[in-house]
Amino acid sequence: MSSNQENNQAERPTSRPASATALSGGQKIGLVLLFLAAWFLRIQFARDYEQNHPLAQRPVIDEASYERWALRLASGEPGSEQAFFQEPLYPYALSVVYGAVEGRKTAIEGDVAPDVLLRSQRTGARHLQAFLGALTVLLTFFFTRCVFGRAAAFVAATGMAVYQPLLLFPAYLLKPNLFLPLFTGLLVVVAGLKVERVPQLRSLIGWLSAGVLAGLCALLRGNALVLLPVLLLLPFLRVRKTREWGAAAASAVCLLAGMVSCLLPVAIRNYTVSGVFAITTVGAGTNLYGGNSPENPHGVATELPFIRGIPEYEFEDWKREAQRRLGRELGAGEVSDFWLRETFSSIADQPLVHLRILFNKLRLALGAYEVPDNHHLAWDAGFWPLAQFPFPGYTLWGWLGLAGMILFLAQHFRDRAPMGSELRGREALAIYVLYLGTIVLTVMSMRARLALVPLLLCFAGFFLSCLSPSRIRENWFPAAIALLLSALPVFNSIIDDEERQRDFDEREMNYVVYQLQSEGVTDEVLELASGLAERHPRSSRIRILAAEVNYIRAREIWNDENASEESRQLAQESAQAIMQLLREITEDDNVPPRETFRARKLAGLIHLQEESPGPAVSHLRRALEFDPSDAVCRMSLANALFLRSLEIAPSAQTEAWLTESEGLLVDLLPLRSEDAPEISALLQQVYAELVR
Questions:
Q1: Would 49 be classed as within a structural domain?
Q2: For 496-507, how does the pLDDT look when each residue is reduced to its tens digit (9 = 90+)?
Q3: Which of 359, 397, 495, 587 holds its CA 20 to 30 A away from the CA of 640?
Q4: Which domain range does residue 78 map to?
Q5: This prediction's pTM
Q6: From CA 545, how far away is CA 271, in angstroms rounded?
Q7: Residue 365 is assigned to a structural domain of this protein
């Protein structure tokens, strides 16, 4: 090799670790400033969210579920009496934060109003998550430095500091805020570990720590379980040339011990309460089916026709549908097994359909579109001034990250650079591909993809470091090819404008529901509901929501003594049209069961308000067949049964109605503390009729 070739080889960035290279004083100051800037930005985004977003103090879907779970734990109640259906670590961590904030405020101020305390608890959680987000910036730096050196590390850390979704996420009460620092910390620890011929205590503790971090990650995201066997193989892969199998075995044992220390208590707890062996949750089968159902062609987070959008009820919905299909009762473990079998049966029957679903999820995972789940970032930005600033997101960093992977592979196969014994680019790429595979096999969403961001930024840093002035001459052509190739998946979206509008309107609809519950029928709610109905005339869900909004407005006009006779007549006609619409929906076999339930529930409530208890009882009974736990349906049915008993002379039938009403109210009383006065008052009336 000539001297020029040797110089070029020395200058070329490889996957050799640079963790041993100390930072200069200026670089340390730069890194500290980057951390502080990332922390400051995230706190400002969280404050801006709390000040401007209408749902900041009304957590939704998973957020609401985690918060309710955390509040129960913080008050000393058990979080769940069944095997976990959702990964438990985030609500448990949130309960610690909420408990600490409550203790601090009580010590300073004494008794605090519940709503004021809850606001403080949410703010405390968001500020802590802002700190964890800034910590992830540092961890991304150290991981990338281990793999590709300091220059790439500064690029990766800067990208993480200003990555738009990660600026927004600390405002959300969602588990990526805890998963990302733990997962990136795991990458850092594993990257810095060696398999020593004579294992030292420090090295064994390092492998043990890696096992603990891996176990904690699995308690936040179930797909992280797939990484555990690969991590256990890692020490053996690193000694495949030296064949130091004993040292590799010692490292693997420490890894396993760390994993077991986190996962075994949860598995024992699940078995104790439900008799089911589940390492973390009993949701593996349902998660796999949900992301691979032919009814979900893009494999995204969605509500299947028989599932309610309330996380605490999801397992019961999955169980109910499984039991309906099988025609028998199922245990908790059998539910997951059933949906696993359903998934594999569907794949066997329709292999091409499922290949297309997998391909769609892969394209979404690699594409620029941020697939919404609990939140839609673009919709949130409409209320969130800071979120409207054009901070770079996946479009830029995903493109550069994929280009970096392509360039890395090209250089690696061209040069056959030695990989050494530490975690290098090849191992980082393998982790990326493996984790990407778990997303493609299960459910795709922006939350699921966030775990890939530190790895993408690592390779984005590598890509840009290859274009430094001293290296660009050698690398410009392969870099240009890499950019062109990576642009194909990033910019070639399978989500068209119509689909994007539907995603956006889904959030509009949820917003109407929340506003209706808290503010009633305002002009804004009426306008939004009307617009949704015009854009989606065939959506039974939106038609039911619009019917509810219009009925409440019609009742307001009808009860308004100052309204003109013409207005009252129009309101009456509107109410009749709404009842006809609900009748059509409940009689349509093509309407999903979840929407039929909603239509029957609304029809029952309207009949009850119109003082027609007979039809109200019929509709509410049918609604409770789908959702026996719905508190509003149960309380309304109890009321309807009571009113029905007053319509006819006392008899065995009226006594049966009153007894059923009494049972419903007694069961509800300990569950609905906010409605306790109303329930108690109705219960007293029922008792009075029973003893008459």
A1: yes
A2: 888 888 888 888
A3: 587
A4: 21-279+372-491
A5: 0.86
A6: 41
A7: no
Whether 648 and 654 have beta carbons less than 8 Å apart is answered as yes
Give the Cα separation of 592 and 219 in Å (integer): 33
d(CA 461, CA 533): 47
What single string gives the DSSP state of each residue in 309-353? S-HHHHHHHHHHHHHHHHTS---HHHHHHHHHHHHHHHHHH-HHH
- 188: which residues sit within 8 A by CB, 6+ positions away? 139, 142, 143, 146
Cα 674–Cα 676–Cα 679 angle in degrees, nearest 5: 125
Residue with more model confidence, 199 or 233: 233
Tokens of 386: 């800071």
How many structural domains are present in the chain? 1
Return the percentage of the chain with pLDDT > 90, whole number. Answer: 35
Strand partners, 444: 300
CA dihedral of 122, 125, 126, 131, whole degrees rounded to 10: 160
Tokens linked to 313:
């009820």
- What secondary structure, in 3-state letters, does 466-521 show? CCCCCCHHHHHHHHHHHHHHHHHHHHCCCCCHHHHHHHHHHHHHHHHHHHHHHHCC
Query: Rounded to whole angstroms, how far apart are CA atoms 336 and 356?
Result: 24
* DSSP character at residue 300: B
Sign of the alpha-carbon dihedral angle for 325, 329, 330, 332: positive
**CA separation for the pair 515, 55 (Å, rounded):** 9
Count the residues in the chain.
692
Rg, C-alpha atoms of the chain: 29
- Here the contacts of 94-100 (C-beta below 8 Å, separation 24 or greater) are 94/66, 94/67, 94/69, 94/70, 94/125, 94/173, 95/69, 95/70, 95/71, 97/70, 97/121, 97/124, 97/125, 97/128, 98/70, 98/71, 98/74, 98/124, 98/125, 99/74, 100/124
DSSP assignments along 248-286, one per residue:
HHHHHHHHHHHHHHHHHHHHHHHHHHHS---SS-S-HHH
445-449, long-range: CB within 8 Å, 24+ apart, which pairs? Answer: 445/300, 445/301, 445/371, 445/372, 445/373, 446/165, 446/370, 446/371, 446/372, 446/373, 446/377, 447/174, 447/176, 447/301, 447/373, 447/374, 448/221, 448/223, 448/365, 449/365, 449/371, 449/394
How is residue 19 annotated by DSSP?
T
Higher pLDDT, 592 or 450: 450
Distance (Å, rounded) from C-alpha 77 to C-alpha 70?
A: 10
d(CA 292, CA 350): 11
pLDDT of residue 9: 40
CB 506 within 8 A of CB 372: yes
Q: What is the reported pLDDT for 14?
A: 44
454/137 Cα distance (integer angstroms):
9
Q: Is residue 295 part of a domain?
A: no
Is residue 106 domain-resident? yes
Lookup result for tokens 């790439």: 152
Residue 494 CA to residue 611 CA, distance in Å, equals 50
Neighbours of 542 (CB within 10 A): 23
- For the chain, how many helices (H) and strands (E)? 30, 0
Residues 404, 454 contacting (CB under 8 angstroms): no
List the structure tokens of 504. 């956006």
Stretch 634-656: mean pLDDT, rounded? Answer: 87
Does residue 15 carry a pLDDT above 60?
no
Backbone angles phi, psi at 444, to 5 degrees: -95, 135
320 to 275, 315, 323, 463, 625: CA distances (angstroms): 19, 8, 5, 51, 10
